[in-house]
Structure formats: structure tokens, C-alpha cells
Amino acid sequence: MALKFCDAFWGADIADQSGYEAILQRLQDGRHMCKDVEDLLKMRAIAEEKYGRELVAIARKAEGQTEIGTLKSSFDKMKAEIEKTGNLHIQLSERIREEVQKLEAFREHQREQRKKLEEIIEKLQKPKIVLHKKTVESKRLYDQRSKEADEAEQAVGKKTNVNASTHRQSEKVLNRARLCMQAAILAEKQYRWNVDQLEKTRQDWESTYRSACEVFQQQESERINILRCVLWDHCNMLSMQCIRDDECYEEVRKILEQCEIITDNNCFIEMKKTCCHPPAPIEFQCYCNMDTNGSVMEMESVVVPSSGCPEADSKLGETYTPAQERGGVPEEKYVVLYDFKAQQMSFLSIKEKLSQLLRKARMGGGQHGGMAYLGWSLEHT
């Protein structure tokens, strides 16, 4: 069962305004509550706008330009959806500000309406209080004059029972009683008139106050309803924003589902491949095989008579072959594989050694056993 303001906020007497003051205090508190809700929404709008702008800035500052393939598409989609989310939060802040403006307009409308009613009530309150004071004073005077009239009448009755009283004293008592009665009658008239005027004012005030209580209760109901709706809508906005945020991230998840490791690796290989075979192995090259230009020199198929110098033969890295008989005279064959350049004075280079062998072969007198076939070749690689 709904209670009513007009049945619960009256004063103990006609001058008591405690009920009216209680209603005004409630309306004042409600006005402050509206202001508190407005401040909350304003701060939330500022926070949403700041958050949205931060998201947009983050999305635009993020680079990721070095990535390729499906992962790049996923990352680009992520940036795009973050920026979209930021813009949605900025739009949310604008809608919240619109709600704040509506609430401010509602609060101002209620303030103006309440102010008009308060002015009307105040106009009726002041004469009511003044008349009430006059009525109380006239009642006091009426009571006093009536008491005096009763006392004067009693004095007259006592005086008439006294035989010794003089005629002059009797007249004096009668005159006083008559004056007191007249004063009592006038006081009664004044008191009645004040009561009548006060009752008329009271009726006007009561009717106006009852109507004002109904309007105040309606305002309070509207205020509670509008605040409840604003807060409800605000929660719906935030819930919808969460849904939209999730939709944005769902779009990113859809792109991420298409991100494949093999596809991205293949993409990188096709774009940046260099050579399909590994480089050839690096072989060891003897320092002795290099000429002055860094080319390899090779000597092969050189057959000479034995020099009888094993030290020189061993330094030349020669390969010995089994003895063959030619014309009944045993011969020894030597194959020189590498060119040898002497690094010390006690050794001979291969060219110098060959020159010595050739001279000895010529000095041998053309003997069959002392001559040998000599072959020399140089290959530069």
C-alpha cells in the first residue's frame, strides 16, 4: 500500500511546520542526489573518453611493419579493432554526457516547479502565522474580559444583598459590571472574527499544502524513477560496450584462426630465399703450393736419375717407384708432385735441383744408363 505525503506530514498545531520542513529537506536531499549522479556520470564520461583516446593512440603507435604473411594480417586486424574499440568508448562518453544533460534539465525543471509551490505555501504561511498569533491574543483578551465581567456581576449580586450599602456605591458597582460586560462582548466579537479569518486562511493553506504535498510526492517519485532509469541505462550502456568490445576481439580471433605457421614460413621463404644449395667446403691449401700471385703450381710426371741426396729428396716430398730394368741397367724413377721453394740456405729449390740433375746427365757422356727422360709442366689454378 502506497503511503501519501499529505497524510503524514502535518504539524502538531496550526503553527507547527515540522511536516512541511521535513518534505522540503527531503526534496533538497533529492536535489543533491541528482547532482551526485550527474557528477558520477561526468567523471565516467571523462574516463571513457580518456580510455578511448588512449586506445586509439596505442593502435596508431603500434608498428609491426616487419611482420609478413597471416600473422601480419592478424596483427593489423588487432590494431584496427583496438582503434575501433577506442572510438566506441569515445562515443560512449558522448552518450553519457547526453544523459547528464537530460538529468540536469530534469533537475532544473523540478527546481523551478518546487520553487513556485514553495512561494505559494510561504504566502499562505505568513498570514496564517500572523492570524494565529492575533487569534491567540484575542482569546487571551476575551478570557480576561469574560472573567472580569463575571467578577463584576458577582459583585453586583453581593452588593444588593447588603442593606447598609448606599445608593452611590450600588451605582458604581452596576456601572463597572456593565462596562466589563461590554468589554467582554467586544473581546468575544474580536476573538470570533480572528477565529473566522484564521479558519479561512487555514482552509486555504490546508488545501494548497495538500496539493503541494501531492506535487512534492510526485516530484520525488519522478526523481527516483528518473535516477533509477538513468543508472539502469548507464549499466546497459556499459554492458553493450562490453559486448561491442568482445565483438571487436572476436573479429581478431577469426583472423588469428587463419594464421598458419607453415603458410607464414613459406611466404618468407618465397619472398627472401637466396640460394638453394649450401656453399662448397673449404679445403686445406699448402703454403708451398702458392706462387706469388696466390695460384697453385703443380709439377707432374718428372723422371730423373737418382741424385743420391736423400735429404733433398725428402724435402721435395717425392714418391719412390720400384726399380725397372732398362737395357740391363737398373733405373730409379722419381715423381715430383709439388714445386718446392727453398726457405733456407741448406736446401735447394726444385728448379735448381733439376738444373743440377740435367747437368750431370749431360756430363754422363750420353750413356744409356745415365740418361733419363725429363718432363716438366706448370699448371696455374
With strands numbered from the N-terminus, the spatial order across the biggest sheet is 1-6
- Helix percent reads 55-70%
- By helix and strand content, what is the structural category? mainly alpha
Unreliable residue stretches: 298-327, 365-381
Q: Count the DSSP helices.
A: 6
Q: Give the strand tally.
A: 6
Into which percentage range does the β-strand content fall?
Answer: under 5%
Average pLDDT taken over every residue:
80
- The ordered H/E elements are HHHHEHEEEEHE
Radius of gyration from the CA trace? 65 Å
C-alpha termini separation: 115 Å
Protein described:
The protein is mainly alpha-helical. It is 68% helix and 4% strand. It is built from six helices and six strands. It has helices at residues 18-61, 69-160, 167-257, 261-272, 310-315, 350-363, and strands spanning 297-298, 319-320, 324-326, 329-331, 334-335, 379-380. The strands form three sheets. It has a two-stranded antiparallel ribbon with strand order 1-6. β3 and β4 (329-331) form a beta hairpin. α1 (18-61) packs antiparallel against α2 (69-160), α1 (18-61) packs parallel to α3 (167-257) and α2 runs antiparallel to α3. The longest helix is centred in the first third of the chain and has 92 residues, at 69-160. The protein is rod-shaped and about 215 Å long. Mean pLDDT is 80; it is low at 298-327 and 365-381.
